[in-house]
Amino acid sequence: MRSSSPRKYSTEPDLYAAALRALMRRSYSVHEMREYLVRRAENEEHVGGVLKKLKEFQYLDDARYARDYARIHAQHRHQGKFRIARELRGRGVPDKHIEAALEAVFAETDEATLVRARLERRLRQIKAPLDEKKRASLYRNLLRAGFSSDVIRTELRAATKSDTPAENGSADTADAELPDPPDLSSTDDT
Questions:
Q1: From CA 50, how far away is CA 52, in angstroms rounded?
Q2: Whose CA is closest to 6, among 38, 48, 34?
Q3: Using CA atoms, how far apart are residues 48 and 158, in angstroms rounded to an integer?
Q4: Confidence category of residue 109, pLDDT binned at 50, 70, 90
Q5: What does the chain look like in DSSP terms, one character per residue?
Q6: Phi/psi at 9 (nearest 5 deg)?
Q7: What angle do CA 127, 131, 133 make, to 5 degrees?
Q8: Average pLDDT of the segment spanning 76-95
Q9: CA distance 158 to 172
Q10: What is the pLDDT of residues 13-57, one digit of tens each?
């Protein structure tokens, strides 16, 4: 049975070896590695030296970590800028590295294409015809995935036009079915 607290290391070489083992399993941001080492060090003075050595050998690099994380999450998980940025901030990556990584990744990846791919996958799972409730659910799912609302609306409109027959060929019917707030000035109940 595992103990509730991680094994503590008393020397800097042991702590460094533990950090290398952790980096073999997955990559870490500097902030995450600092937290990892603090939990495992008997003497917290060793943490600074280990971090310095890891940075020196380029085992820890927040810019590279942010770039790789953004690329993987955009291209393979079909996530948007906002979610990737939020998750990287939660992992302690500085904003300058986040912004640079997102610019680099989304310069070669079109956000509309990612929305379209995620939307197509979700539409294949829906068996019944799309009603307003299901469109709202798709919209919320795409927002949670970190895409901008303008791109979501555009792609959702295009997807619903191709999935449902257009009435009178007007784009207004597709716009009315989106989960936007109702326009109170255009309704006449009198």
A1: 5
A2: 38
A3: 53
A4: confident
A5: ---SSPPPB-SHHHHHHHHHHHHHHS---HHHHHHHHHHHBSSTHHHHHHHHHHHHTTS--HHHHHHHHHHHHHHTS---HHHHHHHHHHTT--HHHHHHHHHHHHHHS-HHHHHHHHHHHHHHH--SPP-HHHHHHHHHHHHHTT--HHHHHHHHHHHHHHHSPPSTT-SHHHHHTSSPPP-GGG----
A6: -115, 135
A7: 105
A8: 96
A9: 12
A10: 999 999 999 999 999 999 999 999 999 999 999 999 999 999 999
- Write the pLDDT tens digit of every residue in 60-76: 999 999 999 999 999 99
Q: Which residues of 109-143 are buried (b: 16+ CB within 10 A; e: fewer)?
A: eebeebbbebbeeebeeeeeebeeeebeebbeebb
Q: How confident is the model at residue 185 (pLDDT cuts 50, 70, 90)?
A: low
Model pTM greater than 0.85?
A: no
CB neighbours of 120 closer than 8 A, spacing ≥ 6? Answer: 159
pLDDT, mean of residues 95-111 = 94
At which residue do the structure tokens 């959702």 appear?
156
Two tokens, residue 139: 């919209």
> Token digits for 156?
């959702």
- Which tokens go with 57? 């050998």
Hey, CA dihedral for 48, 53, 54, 55, is it positive or negative?
A: positive
